[in-house]
Design goal:
The chain is α+β, with helices and mostly antiparallel strands. The protein has two domains: 6-102, Nucleotidyltransferase, domain 5 (2-Layer Sandwich); 159-253, ATPase, nucleotide binding domain (Nucleotidyltransferase, domain 5, 2-Layer Sandwich), CATH 3.30.420. Helices cover 43% and strands 22% of the residues. It has seven helices and ten strands. The chain has helices spanning 45-67, 86-91, 108-123, 159-170, 178-186, 207-222, 228-253, and strands at residues 6-11, 16-23, 26-34, 76-82, 99-102, 129-133, 138-144, 147-153, 199-200, 203-204. Strands 3-2-1-4-5 form a five-stranded mixed sheet, sandwiched between helices. A three-stranded antiparallel sheet has the order 6-7-8, with helices on both faces. The longest helix is centred in the last third of the chain and has 26 residues, at 228-253. It is found in: Cytoplasm; Nucleus. Residues 33-248 form the Gcp-like domain. It comes from Timema douglasi (Walking stick).
Length: 254
């Protein structure tokens, strides 16, 4: 007889609060709340932590109810240990037997447990080449010579950070997220504006494209020949092409 392990995970390293429950690899619930700020503004650590503390019990009840389990049935408690903003991280820290997962910059092996291995389990993929992107990470990771290795990464900004800052420059809504709103506007873009394209081997750089947009934005829009939708389309296509190139290079050498 093999007992099915039920695990609950808490995520709160940035403006999203999430609680998920899995049983033997099957996702039973995945409930979330997002701290949303006004257009053109980012989220600050203290206010973000206040949001998480105000909502964590509600989200926990939703996760347990959706999964159909009780707290007594939980075998393993996991939470995001870092990196991230300290006050929000503290709001999801667990003071009982637990597993604390860190992001790739600190320990890739723990990231594998919390991200890559979870993806492998859900997709049934045996040996993936992973494009790991988020607000704080942009890395191309693959299994080689007995371990997961980073083959390429950003040398400055993470792509999520780049998108967030671009959305603030255009004063786009943060509801439900800057990246989603950029994507929706990009669908209406009709003109591809040439932006800096910086791939160095299998590494990428996003700071140049962002600083260029911040510098030329007024003149691009004042001419009347370019729209915010065109800018969203151009940024999205340029960033996507850079990531496809680096991921493809990694796949080609394995």
């Amino acid at each position: 007889f093999v007992k099915m392990v039920i695990a609950i995970g808490f995520e709160g390293s940035a403006n999203k609060l999430g609680i998920g429950i899995i049983e033997n690899g099957k996702v039973l619930s995945n409930c979330r709340r997002t701290y949303i700020t006004p257009p053109g503004e980012g989220f600050l650590p203290r206010e973000t932590a206040q949001h998480h503390r105000a909502n964590i019990l509600t989200v926990l009840r939703e996760a347990l109810d959706e999964a159909g389990v009780t707290p007594q049935q939980i075998d393993v408690v996991c939470y995001t240990k870092g990196p991230g903003m300290a006050p929000p991280l503290v709001s999801v820290a667990v003071r009982r037997p637990h597993i604390g997962a860190t992001s790739p910059q600190q320990h890739l092996s723990l990231s594998i447990k919390s991200d890559i291995e979870m993806g492998r389990l859900i997709t049934n993929c045996d040996n993936p080449t992973v494009l790991y992107v988020s607000g704080g990470n942009t890395q191309v990771i693959a299994y080689s010579r007995g371990r997961y290795r980073i083959f390429g990464e950003t040398i400055d900004l993470a792509i999520g950070n780049c998108l967030d800052r671009f959305a603030r420059v255009l004063k786009l809504s943060n509801d439900p997220s800057p990246g989603y709103n950029i994507e929706q506007m990009a669908k209406r873009g009709k003109k591809l504006i040439v932006l800096p394209y910086c791939v160095k081997g299998m590494d990428v750089s996003f700071s140049g494209i962002l600083s260029t947009i911040e510098k030329i934005l007024p003149q691009l829009l004042d001419t009347g020949t370019n729209t915010k939708e065109d800018l969203c389309f151009s940024l999205q296509e340029t960033l996507f092409a850079m990531l496809v190139e680096t991921t493809g290079e990694c796949g080609a050498i394995l």
